[in-house]
Amino acid sequence: MAKKRNKKAHKKIGSVPGSVIYTGNKESKELFIEVFDYNHDKFLEKQLNKVEDTFDFKLNDCVSWINLNGLNHVDSIEKLGLHFNLHPLVLEDIVNISQRPKIDEYEDYIFLVLKMLYYDGDENIISEQVSFILGPNYVLSFQESEGDVFDSVRDRIRQGKGRVRTMNADYLLYILMDSIIDYYFNVIETLGYKIEDLETDIFLGNVENTINKDIRDLKKEILRVRRAIFPLREVISRIEKHDSHLIASTTKNYYRDIYDHLIQVSENIDIYREMIWSLMDMYMTTISNKMNEVMKVLTIMASIFIPLTFIAGIYGMNFDYIPELHFKYSYFILWGVMIMLFVAMLIYFKRKKWL
Amino acid sequence: MAKKRNKKAHKKIGSVPGSVIYTGNKESKELFIEVFDYNHDKFLEKQLNKVEDTFDFKLNDCVSWINLNGLNHVDSIEKLGLHFNLHPLVLEDIVNISQRPKIDEYEDYIFLVLKMLYYDGDENIISEQVSFILGPNYVLSFQESEGDVFDSVRDRIRQGKGRVRTMNADYLLYILMDSIIDYYFNVIETLGYKIEDLETDIFLGNVENTINKDIRDLKKEILRVRRAIFPLREVISRIEKHDSHLIASTTKNYYRDIYDHLIQVSENIDIYREMIWSLMDMYMTTISNKMNEVMKVLTIMASIFIPLTFIAGIYGMNFDYIPELHFKYSYFILWGVMIMLFVAMLIYFKRKKWL
Amino acid sequence: MAKKRNKKAHKKIGSVPGSVIYTGNKESKELFIEVFDYNHDKFLEKQLNKVEDTFDFKLNDCVSWINLNGLNHVDSIEKLGLHFNLHPLVLEDIVNISQRPKIDEYEDYIFLVLKMLYYDGDENIISEQVSFILGPNYVLSFQESEGDVFDSVRDRIRQGKGRVRTMNADYLLYILMDSIIDYYFNVIETLGYKIEDLETDIFLGNVENTINKDIRDLKKEILRVRRAIFPLREVISRIEKHDSHLIASTTKNYYRDIYDHLIQVSENIDIYREMIWSLMDMYMTTISNKMNEVMKVLTIMASIFIPLTFIAGIYGMNFDYIPELHFKYSYFILWGVMIMLFVAMLIYFKRKKWL
Amino acid sequence: MAKKRNKKAHKKIGSVPGSVIYTGNKESKELFIEVFDYNHDKFLEKQLNKVEDTFDFKLNDCVSWINLNGLNHVDSIEKLGLHFNLHPLVLEDIVNISQRPKIDEYEDYIFLVLKMLYYDGDENIISEQVSFILGPNYVLSFQESEGDVFDSVRDRIRQGKGRVRTMNADYLLYILMDSIIDYYFNVIETLGYKIEDLETDIFLGNVENTINKDIRDLKKEILRVRRAIFPLREVISRIEKHDSHLIASTTKNYYRDIYDHLIQVSENIDIYREMIWSLMDMYMTTISNKMNEVMKVLTIMASIFIPLTFIAGIYGMNFDYIPELHFKYSYFILWGVMIMLFVAMLIYFKRKKWL
Amino acid sequence: MAKKRNKKAHKKIGSVPGSVIYTGNKESKELFIEVFDYNHDKFLEKQLNKVEDTFDFKLNDCVSWINLNGLNHVDSIEKLGLHFNLHPLVLEDIVNISQRPKIDEYEDYIFLVLKMLYYDGDENIISEQVSFILGPNYVLSFQESEGDVFDSVRDRIRQGKGRVRTMNADYLLYILMDSIIDYYFNVIETLGYKIEDLETDIFLGNVENTINKDIRDLKKEILRVRRAIFPLREVISRIEKHDSHLIASTTKNYYRDIYDHLIQVSENIDIYREMIWSLMDMYMTTISNKMNEVMKVLTIMASIFIPLTFIAGIYGMNFDYIPELHFKYSYFILWGVMIMLFVAMLIYFKRKKWL
Q1: Domain extent for B195
Q2: B14, B32 in Cβ contact below 8 A?
Q3: Residue C130 sits in the same domain as residue C272
Q4: Do A229 and A325 share a structural domain?
Q5: E3: in domain
């Protein structure tokens, strides 16, 4: 992922600053625009393919959520930007999908970038950039492709559940961000399970070298999630503190709530970070314990049989005159001695708790 | 625990913000309400089952402590909230048991969330969320279930020990919190014992792989305790600094005392943290020492007997012409040589301090 | 590199402060001066060999970029400094190539030092110091030798791409710095690849001691890059915050953009830092795993054959009376016993998962 | 120690806040009060057993140092507190010997708690709490038991050495604290010696498991000393900064001097901390080196004699037709071969620097 | 060194604060005073043995540098202090050679303490305390003994090189400090070499236990240098920020230059610190690699020859009926089998990359 992101950033070397260049995956995706337009007694939902069709929603007296999927359609985004009066740097940031979460306040809108995190079917974290423009009575959202974490928001608007239909665009932005942060909990929860699985695995004595890779992959995931989430705290805190006519002071309580959630997520990430970092130590000691066990087997076998073999060797010598060889019971006496030695060894190792 | 908490948070994905949903264990618990109503010359203690019965205590001229157990009774809590004029977000936070310790100041009450920590019979740390509402002459407390750390407070109110009966609700809140923090000392004390036990265990040479698990479990306990206690420092410090008509300046001295205690607890936690973290190193070196010992036994046995066996092998060869075989005392001379070699080896290993 | 830098600094011991002494590589390099002089409708590009030829560009009404290569030509730089009214300390800093990135604001110009980082053909990071003087309508830049990261800037000026021809010198400085920072992304991207390669290498079981050197070299590279980039954040942040008549407030938006990029680069560096630091642990566990494997082979071989050899030794003894020797099928029975022992051993090691 | 302190704190669970309960060792100690009363021309020294006898010293026009030993005499301390007008919380803190170093400023006195550290005969650090009350012309000091670090102060007062007899109570407090801090130097010096001894021990190859315990004990000592000393910096810094009529501005210079000393002590503690923490690494590598040595001996012995034994085994076989057995010089040739092999092995191991 | 410093500090226990006691090496050193007295057209250099001879230089209209060597001559220093009106605490600090770098501003002079660092012939770092008094037109400097880093300053004054003869005493102090800091670069450069040497040593496979000591010694050196240099940053920064009539604002630019250098030195120290700290890891892995190599040799030898020896042992048995013994070519067939086994083993180990 780190690799991918850099490769994208790299593509821009030498480009003119302020130019709107999509830095994501170039495979052509359909432009898909979704509009929710509502107030306490009206509600309209539309799927569109042309940005021009959204222009009317800017000035009507309903709250509008215009959700655009397909950042590769740079032309359409530029047209939209022109109509909604967006600064070129904003447009550049929307299509450059390697932004850090940030907030930029302009005269008549607020620009927000953040990362949507969710697990795909194969337990890989998907990190997708979402940009929001909060205007007086509309929220524009920009996503790389279809598929997001906003289904509960759509349902709530459709069914008029909760306060959303009676509130303004600032509240709409809040519930959108709240949905994103809910999924953060989901992501770190899964991370927690993965760490515990790995822990159990190591504890049960799995010392395969693949553990190394698993630990590292988890480390990278945590660093990645961390980088998506930590800067967001500052963003939210700025929303809370800043006086903008676009965000009503009553709505700010809700943003404070988001902030509390983010702090909680951050704390969990840091705890997981510590746990995963110390997994390596646990792994190391487990390997050493295994080796200890191996060494004990070797030492016990060698310590018992090498001396006995030596004794057998003695009486295999061909000296003309070895008196013991000619006594009748020598052989049996020797067996006795050897068995005693054997037992003594066993007792010794038992005492040392190696057996 | 981390796992459990996340699972709970997860349940809320997609729920409408501001809705009062109990996130704890769903097994039905009885609603149990306890009321202490007192001033310097009156005292009343009551057990109730209906919240409505507590409404009269809001306005009387005594100090009232209304202690509600059973957060699953969301309806009752909402009724209470309505009567005591609590904000919906406050109610939501009361029943969401995965809050960070925090303080929210409202017009006519202060809302506090913190964690009660104590050991159950099996030496497991129980972390239970307690929420307090401090009003002009009452304290509401909300607990998940019966069983808490407030028995000494109850006794003191009943018996009129100390200042409690002559002071206002702010002082009542103080002694409730003081009880909680007293138990923090208890918890970290037990953590300290556990660390020392583990230390002794390792030092005495126990290198079982279960040590790994014990160390990790202790680490997790410390992280958990830390997360419950550290944010509280800021909470108390805000009580101290903030000018609220609900907390008399004379009472603030007592809160400063709590603050001092919290700092002490925090320092101890950090010390234990360091001790437990470095246990892993100690464990590692102990394993290595053990292995060293094993290797020494092997090396001594092998180094002594392999050369001797070689010598015996030599005279077991069947060459037609080996002159030594035919001397009369060869065999005895050989024994002499071998014993000398043996002794030389012993001396060598003795010198190396391997014996 | 650290060694080299210090050696240079060392050369100055005892020198008079404020004296202009070039601390870089003394091999004589040609003085090479490049001038770009332009406004929205004019454009002039010149290559010069004498500083005196640049003096006219100071006062004309175009934006001029005077790019001087060859810091060993101290005399020429002093002449230039005199004409452009530069402070002696500034000149000293320009030719002392071991500066930290910094900004010094003077009455009628701003002095900036930073580090250009790029990979040469052999994947070595080249760090070259660039100093900028931003005057009212000119930018002076000073490089140690030819070869830099500004080709895209040259093209843009030549072709009038983007805003550059319509903007002032402060914007020119911005695009120059932007080019430098674009290359920072490039450098850390390559660092990222190197770390991943090393990681794969270790994971695949390469435990050669050279890994040690590779890890250390990467560590040093990261420390070096870090030292070049981190102080720059403060520099840019000061440009943003400071009120200078030399930098228009509209241009400051662009500097904020650079600042965002720098934060991104810094975060990546810190992530790579963590990854490379923990590589050592991974390497350690891989070595231990290898050793474990070696030990297992040894233990299996020894545990199987040492007892068998002992048995063979027994029946090689020359006692006069060993009854087994004279039974007809002894030899075959013995083989049977030995094969059974062998198989039992194999099963035992299979169970222990050593095979 | 951590264990002990907690046990004490534990005893207080459930006690009424503000109650004066001695938390130290309950064995009965004699109350012992010492009074030094002096000005530039008078001097009086008294030993008393009843606090009532000290009451006259409060108001006379000399500087009085009233030093009370025996915190278990709670009644006497409460009487003293009443006469000197001390707040109940102050009295509670005086007898609760698990205080963090702190300063509390009251209307007409300053209350200071700090830790006296010194080594007893057996090289154990003794940490004893000392509380000071600085009044207009008196200093009260409270110690758990007799025996302290103030002998040089006593001498100085007796003999009128230095400035003490011409200065006020604030200076007396200063020289008392200065004595305490002088002993801090002593304590960390001894810690330094202990670390170096341990270092030498490890370096000389002592890899006994007891080293583990020694390192841990030193770690704990350092953490303990650290906890006693670090909060004091803030205390002194508050004396310096605060405007109190009790401390003359000319005396503040002296407190700044103490502050400088404390910083020095703190720096040393942190250095020792680092040194002791990294001792574990040194210990680990030393163990590994030892093991390496052991392994080499084993490998050399085994590698030399196992092949030779094999050769001897070959010619111990009883095949009917082994031609070599019947050559006359076979035996001697074989010896030659074996000696050559032996020497070759030695050379090989020499080359590998294992010998 | 740490040991030495503490020992010195220890000597002072119980001494009266403010008393001027030399804490350094008591061996008697000659008092040696050097005076440089100059302005833009006059210059005088003198060597003196009595402090009284320097008194005239206080009030003349030249800039005077009075450099006193021999801190054991406490009487002379006290006389000088009296004449130059120095505070007793200043005198105490001058002769107490275990000061942290610090600055104290007095009415009519500034008192500065810092550490001179340089390598002696045997590559040991010498740390010597230098104190400066900056008066209106003089600089007093105090050194423990002759030999310092100021020769270039002397030359510059003598020869009138640079600005020194035209500037005031504040500039003189600057070039003195600049000389000291130049040597800091020298010291850390040498530290850098030492680290690299050690690194190369370890990399080339030197795993002697002495490496442990070398690493530790370097760590201590770095900690020591760090402690001498880091507090100086604050000192210089206070000179820069403070408004003193003794330091002209034009001279402050030069102090900012020193500050930049100090930051650079500090950064290098921290980098070296990291490098040296991670050397231990490298050492550890190198040891483990060595051990791995040893184990491989052992395993290969044992794995090849133990089975072969077993086979030879089989045919050394004395059973009456072993059919193979009587076939004519058995012996040669056996050799064939053994050689095949041997080769198979070699191939196996080759495949495992152990050969």
Answers
A1: 12-286
A2: no
A3: yes
A4: no
A5: no
Q: Where are the alpha helices (DSSP H) in E204-329?
A: 210-241, 249-314
CA–centroid distance for A60 within its chain: 40
- Polymer length in residues for chain E: 355
Same domain, B221 and B330: no
Q: Which residues of chain D lie closer than 8 angstroms to B292, CB-CB?
A: 207, 287, 290-291, 294
E14 to D295: CB separation less than 8 angstroms, yes or no: no
Structure tokens at B162: 């100390």
Give the whole-angstrom CA distance, residue C41 versus residue E280.
63
At C232 the three-state DSSP class reads helix
When CB atoms are compared, the residue of C277, C284, C297 closest to E303 is C297
* Whether the Cβ atoms of residue C302 and residue E302 lie closer than 8 Å to each other: yes
Mutate to test the interface with A, among C266, C318, C345 (most CBs of A within 10 A): C318
Do C317 and A318 lie within an 8 Å CB cutoff? no
User: SS3 string of chain B?
Assistant: CHHHHHHHHHHCCCCCCCCCCCCCCCCCCCCEEEEEEECCCCEEEEEECCHHHHHHHHCCCCEEEEEEECCCCHHHHHHHHHHCCCCHHHHHHHHCCCCCCEEEECCCCEEEEEEEEEECCCCCEEEEEEEEEECCCEEEEEECCCCCCCHHHHHHHHHCCCCHHHCCHHHHHHHHHHHHHHHHHHHHHHHHHHHHHHHHHHHCCCCCCHHHHHHHHHHHHHHHHHHHHHHHHHHHHHHHHCCCCCCCHHHHHHHHHHHHHHHHHHHHHHHHHHHHHHHHHHHHHHHHHHHHHHHHHHHHHHHHHHHHHHHHHHCCCCCCCCHHHHCCCHHHHHHHHHHHHHHHHHHHHHHCCCC
Write down how long chain C is.
Answer: 355
Give yes or no for a contact between E68 and E50, defined as CB atoms under 8 angstroms apart: no
In this structure, the answer to whether residues D259 and D305 fall within a common structural domain is: no
Residue at A96 is within a domain: yes
Q: Could you tell me which residues are beta bridge partners of residue E68?
A: E33, E142
- Answer with the one of C286, C314, C337 that is the final residue of a domain: C286
Closest CA to E49 of E59, E37, E34: E34
Look at residue E14 in the predicted model and tell me its pLDDT. 61
Cβ atoms of residues D148 and D130 within 8 Å? yes
**For chain A, which residues score pLDDT lower than 50?**
1-11
Q: How many CB pairs under 8 A join A and C?
A: 167
Say whether both D279 and D235 belong to one domain.
yes
Alpha-carbon gap, residue B177 to B117, rounded angstroms: 12
8 A C-beta contact, residue D156 and residue D175 = yes
pLDDT mean over C59-67: 89
Query: If you average pLDDT over every residue of chain A, what do you get?
Result: 87
Q: What is the amino acid identity at position D321?
A: Y
Q: What is the CATH number of the domain that holds B328?
A: 1.20.58.340
Q: Which residues of D touch B179 (CB under 8 A)?
A: 14
Chains contacting chain A through 3 or more C-beta pairs under 8 A: B, C
- Say how many C-beta atoms besides its own lie within 10 A of residue E320's C-beta: 11
Residue of E nearest to C284 (CA): E285
pLDDT tens-place values along chain E, 355 residues long: 333 333 444 445 666 666 777 777 766 678 889 999 998 888 899 998 888 888 888 888 889 999 999 888 888 999 999 999 998 888 988 988 888 899 988 888 999 999 999 888 777 888 899 999 999 999 999 998 877 889 889 988 988 877 888 889 999 999 999 999 989 998 998 899 999 999 999 988 888 888 889 999 999 999 989 999 999 999 999 888 877 888 888 888 888 888 988 999 999 999 999 999 889 999 999 999 999 999 999 999 999 999 999 999 999 999 999 998 999 899 999 999 999 999 999 999 999 888 8
* Pairing status of strand A63-69 against strand A138-143: parallel
Same domain for E138 and E282, yes or no, is yes
